[in-house]
Amino acid sequence: MSAEATNPEAHPEARPELRRRGRTRLDLRRLGRAALLGPTSRDRLPDAIGHVAEAHRAHHPDADLSVLRRAYLLAETSHRGQMRKSGEPYITHPLAVTLILAELGAETTTLTASLLHDTVEDTDVTLDQVRAEFGDEVCFIVDGVTKVERIDYGAAAEPETFRKMLVATGNDVRVMSIKLADRLHNMRTLGVMRPEKQARIAKVTRDVLIPLAERLGVQALKTELEDLVFAILHPEEYESTRALIAAHAGERDPLPAIADSVRTVLRDAGIAAEVQVRPRHFVSVHRIARTRGELRGSDFGRILVRVGENADCYAVLGELHTCFTPVISEFKDFIATPKFNLYQSLHTAVATPEGYVAEVIVRTRQMHRVAEAGVVALGNPYATAAPEAGATPDSATDPDEERVDPTRPGWLSRLLDWQQSAPDPDTFWTVLRAELAQDREITVFREDGSATGTISLPAGASCIDAAYAQHGEAAHGCIGARVNGRLTSLSSPLSDGDTVQLLLAQDASSGPAAEWLDHARTPAARIAISSWLASHPDRAMATTSAARAPLSVVGARGGGGNAVADLPDATVRLAGCCTPVPPDAVAGFLVRGGAVTVHRIHCAAVAQMRAVGRTSVAVHWRATADCRVTLLAESFGRPHLLADLTEAIAREGVEVVSATVEPPVEQRVRHSYTLQLPDAAGLPALMRAMRDVPGVYDVSRA
Description:
Elements: H1 28-37, H2 50-59, H3 66-79, H4 92-104, H5 108-115, H6 119-122, H7 127-134, H8 136-145, H9 150-153, H10 157-171, H11 174-188, H12 195-215, H13 219-233, H14 235-249, H15 255-268, E1 274-279, H16 282-292, E2 301-307, H17 310-323, E3 325-326, E4 332-333, E5 346-351, E6 357-364, H18 365-373, H19 410-419, H20 425-436, E7 441-448, E8 451-458, H21 463-471, E9 478-483, E10 486-488, E11 499-504, H22 523-535, H23 537-544, E12 551-554, E13 563-565, E14 572-574, E15 586-590, E16 596-600, H24 604-611, E17 616-617, E18 619-621, E19 627-636, H25 641-651, E20 655-661, E21 668-677, H26 683-691, E22 696-701
Parallel strand pairs: 2-6, 7-11, 14-16
Antiparallel strand pairs: 1-2, 3-5, 4-5, 5-6, 7-8, 9-10, 9-11, 12-20, 13-18, 15-16, 15-17, 19-21, 19-22, 20-21
Helix pairs in contact: 2-4, 3-5, 4-5, 4-11, 5-8, 7-8, 8-10, 8-11, 10-11, 10-19, 11-12, 11-13, 12-13, 13-14, 14-16, 19-22
């Protein structure tokens, strides 16, 4: 935006090798003179924006350029007399930003707002004037990219400006498109500033703007920003990479010959395709060099194949893998499974008879446009409902009505949610950088009764993150989850495509455990958990206290129940490992002390007893129907659970002989009950009654 600039020829960060091939470069001095002289006729575009109009018409042949003329005249008039530190008239900056967006294919409304993006911030033009002249859409975008006043926010001005822009981006992604182009031009012309200020701006660009460009899919801006930041923050590595590329330029490049072979193969197969060699940018070469060590000629670029239809992409892939030797480990299908930033392509690598390995990217022309320009290539998200630029306020949508951008990605929705819970600018700034550092995203399916939808989460997220993404603060009462139909703990990590059903406690007083912070990855979850723990210090202390010993309740009865051994005067004991009950098939074994232990016939201990040579004793059941059994109940921890379980047992007319409750682990509790039943036939009903207790998810015999 209004950052100072200088002549790009005077600083090393704008060297020609950093410029994207095919991109027109502005002659700032010529533009400055044209801006000062103005147009020669009221009926034609000003000379200073002729190149913008040309680039715009290349993507939008039928575009009405009159609104650009009016926007330029207002911008030039309002900025007249303002100069950049480089000596050029200030109007050259919005012109350069607008040209960048025009080359990416931005529609007219975006270009109009781009020409005006600094007028409200740096001149006497007001938002009301912009709205009256150009309509609500342009006004909204200009307001979104306007910085907050430093006099009002002090040191918090920068994070609060980004917060404001991100909130506006949530309603209209064109706001961030202009911000990215604005930062690119300022980075191109950064050399006039002091080294420490260059480094500060470069770090913010690296930590915030480049990840945003990646997430919005604007690769054309992202790659150049990466190179400019690389040159400022890592000058020695930049110079060594530049020397590496310069040395390669003097050698024979095998990629053009490989590209010719690919053209021949596709032509013979009858597939219409454009094949070209795409040189890697500086940071890409640096990364490859660190990964592979010594580089070969084919490592300095990739082959790009562009076709007309999706089916042609797979046809190209088949021909490449048939006529060349494929490197299977390098194959990735981003058409069937697009990246979360809209990117689609087929990636593969093939080996030639000469021993070179060439990376190949296959995509349609539309995929290529989206891969380069990202959200900029999507055009106006309100094309069917929003007014054109220049519409009167009466014809515009209600400015107070909530706007929902159909292009809003999942990560942006998450960011907008958690930023509301981070009022402190320092917290927002720190968490924002951490959130943007997550460079991969997964999608999980939620299943909640009859409702089914999707949740977008960063890679490595757990069920805890899914709970807060779906339920917000209500997730404080989450007690467990089912992932792909199987019960699991909240700390379990999720994978792309998982189906998640989250289980909430009925008790409103339930709250998260401090250990949840160890497994939460999203800012929304971490902020919500931390806030709850801070407001409930007593509960937080309880969740982090040392594990208690198991709670045991022991009754007075014991013995072998109604099992009878065919051994006079022998003491009979029902084995606690399998707790047999009538009419289970059982086996008895003589153990030390002359006692007979009774096991179910399929108990693992039976094989062990026989293996060690224990004497087998015949056992049968008495005619009486009562029996003793040990049941294991697994549940999610909640208050009054033990009381509810024992009450359910008592309602079935069953006596509790002993009970053991283990301390909770990740809010999961294991109960062990030894019970005396008046009739073995009532065991299934008892187990059903115990399973019906809220929070209990399984009851089984020991």
